[in-house]
Amino acid sequence: MRFAFVLGELGSGLRRNLAMVISIVLVTFISLTFVGAAGLLQLQINQMKGYWYDRVQVAVFLCVDNSTSPSCAAGPVSDEQRDDIQAILESDSFSEYVSTVEYESQEEALGHFQDQFANSPIVDSVTADQLPESFRVNLVDPEKYEVINEAFSSTPGVDVVSDQRELLERLFTYMNVASAIALTIAGVMLLCAVLLVATTIRLSAFSRRRETGIMRLVGASKAVIQLPFVLEGVIAAVVGGLLATGTLWAVAHFALNGVLAEMYPETAFISSTEVLLLAPLLILLGGVLAGVSSLLTLRRYLRV
What we know:
Largest sheet: 4 strands, antiparallel
Helix content: 55-70%
Number of strands: 4
Strand order of the largest sheet: 2-3-1-4
Shape: elongated
Structural class: alpha+beta
Distance between the termini: 20 Å
Radius of gyration: 31 Å
Oligomer: single chain
Number of domains: 2
């Protein structure tokens, strides 16, 4: 009997405040989408770090005609200098730091440049002799970059030692900033959702103050009177959480694993199934915020 009564009151409240309930659903949907987007972005950052840090290389660029480094004062790298650098990299003293060493000639560097900047107008103006030859060094531990840098930064024939991890760190910094911005927007939107839930419950309680007065007179418990109001906000927030989950899944499935995966096949993107890891948290977050907001509002505006 009480369960049927609670369901009846819940349905009545949803019908009376349909516009406000839809507003709660939409605001919760937008705010939880931002929360989920920040979470997915962090998952993507962690996955990219694990993927690229295992493949990070140190590039030892050799001197060319236009090099300005002090170690290139004698001009372009000589065959003897190149052989000495390669011998040091492949020596036993560096075996604990260096995993593999690959030589890239100027012609190969031009080919990679043309592939990378195929749509750029400058691609036809660059020639092989303008690009440096280099040794691409895979490290056993990417954190040991300084060992290579200190050993070769002033070696004759070496122009510069470049750590690809620096570029990755810059990229990940930008992505972390984007994640923080998304979380900030999500926090503002969640606050709006909480205030909207509180307003909706307050109006609902005010419009049914006569019914709740009668219920108090006939001895209805506090839980029975308040439960329909609380469920209104919780159901609206849960629907918003489900919509947010569906949107994030669609973005991960069609955008990340579809379009972007085809455009950047060498990049490891998170799978759409990883959205399911965030789904319970998003729905729970929406429901808890709506429930707490409803209870606090009822304590103030609905004396039982």
